[in-house]
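= Protein in question =
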Amino acid sequence: MLPLELFGRRGYGKLLGWSTRAKQVSSAVAAFVMSALMAGFGILPSIWTIVIVALVGRGHWQPYRSS
């Protein structure tokens, strides 16, 4: 069954907007944080910081990954 059928047109739009809110906010905050890192520490340390954060995040999700 399609989600649109389950929740209706208004309900599906509201649910989709609510569920993507965290992604939209984190994307906006990430751009601000990256520019602040680059201004404060330089480009290379900022890129390494992002790489380390990504690897830590991936490591935390690794146990939940299905084989």
Notes: The two ends are 27 Å apart (CA to CA).
